Structures
1.
Amino acid sequence: MRPEHTSSISEQLVERSLKAVWHPCTQMKHHERFPLIALSHGKGSWLYDHDGQRYLDAVSSWWVNLFGHSNSYINEALKEQLNHLEHAMLAGFTHKPVIELSERLSALTSHQLGHTFYASDGASAIEIALKMSFHYWRNLGQPEKKEFVCLKNSYHGETLGALAVTDVALFKDAYGPLIGQSHIVASPDARNAVNGQTPQDVATLALKDLEKTLQIHQGKIAALIIEPLVQCATGMAMYDPSYLVGARQLCDQYQVHLIADEIAVGCGRTGTFFAVEQAGSSGIWPDFLALSKGISGGYLPLSLVMTTDKIYQAFYDDDVTKGFLHSHSYTGNPLACTAALATLDIFANDHVIEKNKILSQSISESFTWAKNDSRIEHFRQTGMILAFDVKEDVCSKTFAKEFFKEALAQEVLVRPIGRTIYIMPPYTLSADELNILSKGIENALQLVLSKKV
Ligand SMILES: *Cc1c(COP(=O)(O)O)cnc(C)c1O
């Protein structure tokens, strides 16, 4: 033990942080037992603390980082933009980065979603999509369409509006009296299969449940919100793409908007740039598509909602109250848009979607040990997300935290969700790093499970 007066820089920073910084999604008292790490810098897949310890960022720092920390291409783009314009209000003014980003995103949807509205974080993008959907129906003379439908175990952010379409008791129950009500329908989570059902069977059953709700509440529902292909925050629940095709059809049939929350699954995470591209043979397009997290390469807070010309036109009027009444101070921030443009450059120049097909195959192969481990169930993968569940009877209540701590000791940053271990690494992960990652998780699991008697 060090005497107090010679505590390391790391220790000093941790102490100051615990005094002055209120950390997110954290019971601060738990830091009496679990580590807080003061980072000094990041490079590529690695984060470094002040003691020279390194951690492989296997969760892309809460799923935002796509091309590594301190990426030289994005760094240069930002430095160049700093010489021109750091920020200006987007009401009454515009600038090249926001125009170019909107045009390039539109092109990525074959111009199906040609109008983009900006905010700074994911939850705000969800607020925007919900408000826009309601306001669209109001502008059309149908203000009674004001209810929303979401999936069981959905997560769409933690502001009050986003919580209304989120089905996570931990985040929701405490604030129940403040939150609006939504209709929660069955999740197509392939793990729900019983008696030899296929993932497609599970999706078909979930669509039946959706149709029932749309039928009962006909004329009252504004939108259905889903996370395409993977429900990430509640444990990487993966499902059959036929659900997306069916949901699109039902939304059309019952005159309900489809909101695709691609905040986590967008930007190539599932194997295509947008997850909805994997629906059916040619994909589907939602009425609203929300992006955040990866869109700025993990550099700056940026979120956006893309929508159709049909919806845009319903707001286009001489009457100011028919316009979309929403704004954030940092809307369309030029630096954030520049980081996003550099991110899109890397996708195009480095053929990232193609290369990720090979990388995701290597990821699958390097976790062969997990496929064969009898303590593990529901091994699954969608593109650059790999997940498996540790069986309930072998892990303790504090498994997630114990595993996090043990993995850090193996130089790997992974944060299990309950008993689901998952990785969502940067797309720049090397073969050596993948090896360290897989071995680190295997060792940490061994250590944690052997502790529990
Ligand atoms: C992270 C996330 C959000 C919320 O984004 P924040 O930037 O954390 O507010 C919303 N939806 C999904 C699917 C997410 O993963």
2.
Amino acid sequence: MSTQKFATQALHAGHDVQSNGGTRAVPIYQSTAFVFKDSDHAANLFALAEPGNIYTRINNPTNDILEQRLAALDGGIAAVVTASGMAAIATSLLTLLRAGDHIVASSSLYGGTYNLLNVTLPRHGITTTFVDPSDAENFTKATKENTRVFFIESLGNPKLDVLDIKAISQQAKANKVPLIVDNTVATSYLVKPIEHGADIVIHSLTKYVNGNGTAIGGAIVDAGNFDWANGKFPEFTEPSPGYHGLVYTDVLKNASFIAKVRIEGLRDYGSSLSPFNAFQIIQGLETLELRIKQHSKNALELAKWLQEQKEVTWVNYPGLDSSPYKKLADQYLPEGKSGLVTFGVVGGYESAKTIADKTKLFSLLANIGDTKSLIIHPASTTHQQLSDEAQETTGTTKDLIRLSVGLEHIDDLKADLKQAFKIVSETILQNSSN
Ligand SMILES: *Cc1c(COP(=O)(O)O)cnc(C)c1O
């Protein structure tokens, strides 16, 4: 494994300049398919007897560089990039699980993931028990005979709870199931889940990794540590009818999972990333460290400022002393607590909507991790489809506003919020005098 630091690997890992025509920037290999030398060469590629590109749904040289780079940054053995963060989650779970299997997941999850686990996968016979992740033992308590995976977010979106990855990974190990950690909000600059025992790491590359709001993408990184031959995963130990009788654990050993994601997952579900988007994401990844440090700095300062505003009823940011997650945040995210801040306002649902409408620098949209500041009122938008109860368990109260704090000057961000707060104050005053 390389001894190079994050900033260096983010610029260089996976890109062999000489074998890529001397290119200093990673080129876009915009080609659907790749020419075989002859039929024997083709047969070898399909038989996995030698490495090489076949078809961009399965592999592509631009994507390959991004995959190697992400694996290096996470300390994993390999990665697969996908069309979106949700594609990364769905492809991972569908590669691992079959009808009748069960997931234990943190109740504090991204809305899309919550729906996948709560509504869509049950239609295919895969069910989930959601647990309060603040006590790692809850995962074991919810584990059944057919449980095959634990799923968490390192820094929950939008609850902003910091999870004790190490403690949860110990529960996963005791139950002989892999731990999947969605590391989208924290990014692998702030925390490397594999170092704390995660078996599989998920990223939405759409967010901080790309950072420019120009491309959707996702990634699956395999730590290479899980024992797929432990008796719970016949998918890996019995001959695969979907790949001419291949027994993954015999041939691919500790790379069994990530290999199956590619050669059966990408092949059959088609959740592959466009090389053009891979290129775009590589541009962003080069500066991830610089950006996430500044996002974290701006977010902390803004969170402290919000605490002093009379229209603000509560502020949640893992870097604040008042946060119940401060201790875990300092332990797992010593370099910064990322760029998301949530807060509540006087006047609840209606005021929160007004603020989302009246800010000008903060764009009202459903995304996070952009260089530009973003705002959303989840209860009326991203989490609107969830029941009141589900909104509560995912931490989305009616008055909650989520900010994705960008890289603008902090004074301008404060001024923008201030003018929106003033409108809310005036409305409330008016209503009380009527
Ligand atoms: C956005 C997000 C996803 C989904 O990623 P897409 O690229 O939008 O599909 C998954 N997990 C978390 C935590 C996210 O914020």
